[in-house]
Records
---
Amino acid sequence: MKRDKGFSLVELIIVIVIVGLLSIISVPIYRGHVQRSVAVEGRALVNEIAAAQEIHRARSQTWFVGSGVNAATTTVAELGLDSRRNRYFRLFQYTMTDENNFSVETTGETGTRAEGIQITLTWKSDSPATVIENIESND
């Protein structure tokens, strides 16, 4: 008697179960990596703003206080900032807490992979800048 070549139904079901288990484990991990990689753009934006503030202070002996303070904006021409080219983080807000300290905050654009991600940089004259990433899961 000749044996048919091919896979049995049991073997196919086992393979499907294994692939399903692997996808259950790997998809959430992949999404976390994607969110962290998207957050890099926001981190770069707040660091760029902090660097521009430091350059302004080195040139004029004061922090820049202008139209962008305490209001969400995409550009501050005096500091050479323009975040409109960014894909995920366009709006930012910087706040002067006093004459020696400021903070910068940006939030991911709604409807993008960055939705739910908030990046805050706090600069204090007596300590290094602190960057806090708050990534909320959209699953």
---
Amino acid sequence: MSEDTRGRVPLNEAARSRVAQGGAQGAAAGAAAGAVPGAVAGRQRGVSRRPFGLREQKLAYPDREGYHRHWFNDEPGRIARAGDAGYSQVLDDAGKPVSMTVGVARGGGAQVAYLMEIPAEWYREDMAAQESGHRELMAQIREGRVPGGPTGADRQAQYVPQGVGISIHEERR
């Protein structure tokens, strides 16, 4: 058994044949050539690497000045709907849409997400419109007018203090 295996049994047939052919001579040759025991073949010492198992954002992708980027799951109609809203797909160096497997789809296959972007100005306008809609909804709730809520005789079943409305305390971010 060679010095490289340090008393361990090789796990695959290729490793077994290397041990059988090279034996101790292979280990001595590697040591003479300056090889580091246990080093991965082809890797240079001092080369930058990213250790496995560190906390990292799995969907991290470089920002683009003047654009807002967002990952969209590939569900029926979702990518097309994003395109209708002004988003365009981000392309990699090969000209293909940037995508990542993010989970398991309903049918059991891979759930894929695509990175898309929209001009930052459009994104800010969209968020302002969304916030306006939220404020209107909250005003209706405070007045006791719940959109899609009971009407007619069922409306009387709700309790909203007369002249007081509903009090909601919100935390501002």
